Amino acid sequence: MIDETEVKRLWWHSRRGMLELDVLLIPFVEKVYRTLEHEDQLRYQALIEHEDTDLFAWFLERVVPEDPEIHKIVLRVLEHARTP
């Protein structure tokens, strides 16, 4: 079962203040995070600990994260963003 306090904390951590990141991360937390398998939830938690500049480069697909686990969750976030 998902702890709603944890989801709220993640929502605030996902709010980066950079529009390009906010439009990707906040909807992902609101609509997808609760449905993720535990491993993907842990990946997302690790993802949002990174610097905005890294996140920006990864989501614009200018750079691939060195950590394959982070790369997996970046792809999930991008997949969600591209789904109408």
Q: What does it look like?
A:
It is a single chain. By secondary structure, this protein is an all-alpha fold. It has a single domain, classed as Orthogonal Bundle (DNA polymerase, domain 1). The chain is built from five helices and no strands. The protein starts with a helix and ends with a helix. The relative contact order is 0.16. Belongs to the SdhE FAD assembly factor family. Keywords: Chaperone, Cytoplasm. InterPro entries: SDH (IPR005631), SDH_sf (IPR036714), SdhE_FAD_assembly_factor (IPR050531).
Question: Keywords, please?
Answer:
SDH; FAD assembly factor SdhE; cytoplasm; globular; SdhE_FAD_assembly_factor; mainly alpha; single chain; 84 residues
Q: Could you give the topology of this structure?
A:
Elements: H1 4-14, H2 19-31, H3 38-47, H4 52-59, H5 68-82
Helix pairs in contact: 1-2, 2-5, 3-5
Give a quick rundown of the structure.
The protein has five helices and no strands. It has 84 residues and is mostly helical.
